[in-house]
Amino acid sequence: MKHAALPPLDLLAQAAAYPQFAARYPLRHGYATDDIYAELGLPRPLISLEAPYFYAGNFAAEHANLVAVLPERAARTWQAGRSLQVIPLDIASLSFDYCLIWHESRHRDPAMKWFRDLLVNNAQTSVQAKAATHA
């Protein structure tokens, strides 16, 4: 796939035809990866391998020659020490909703509740700090 001079939407449209890894977890009425293509009015991607976490796909993407559309931070982590290429997509409407996922049997576990609260509080503090620096 030639990508050097393609606009981001054209690049994604071409990528949809290639075998892809997708981190797929339930989100509203479908899966997180479905939203990216649908929101941009692009065809659904050809999903060859799916898993519930982003980090499950780095080995598969490298060794099975798969495409993956994921947040840039995860992509850069995948790329470290591997022969993977990361192409940032400058599309303002793309965003990533972070979700906490846990098994129902751990929902009332005090340690897991503490951990979830810790993550939420840190995220809120980070968002507030970022907003203050851009104000």
Task: Characterize this entry briefly.
The protein is of the alpha/beta class.
Sequence of strands across the biggest β-sheet: 4-1-5
**Secondary structure tally, helices:** 5
Give the end-to-end Cα distance, rounded to a whole number of Å.
41 Å
Gross morphology is globular
Structural class: alpha/beta
* Largest sheet geometry: 3 strands, parallel
Structure write-up:
There is one protein chain. The chain is α/β, with parallel strands linked by helices and 135 residues long. It has 5 helices and 5 strands; from the N terminus they run αβββαβαβαα. The strands form 2 sheets. It has a 3-stranded parallel beta sheet with strand order 4-1-5, with no helix packed on it. β2 and β3 form a beta hairpin. The chain is globular, with a radius of gyration of 17 Å.
Annotation keywords:
135 residues, alpha/beta, 3-stranded parallel beta sheet, two-stranded antiparallel ribbon, 5 helices, globular
List the helices and strands and how they pair.
Blueprint: H1 8-15, E1 19-23, E2 26-27, E3 30-31, H2 32-39, E4 46-51, H3 58-63, E5 67-68, H4 72-79, H5 110-134
Parallel strand pairs: 1-4, 1-5
Antiparallel strand pairs: 2-3
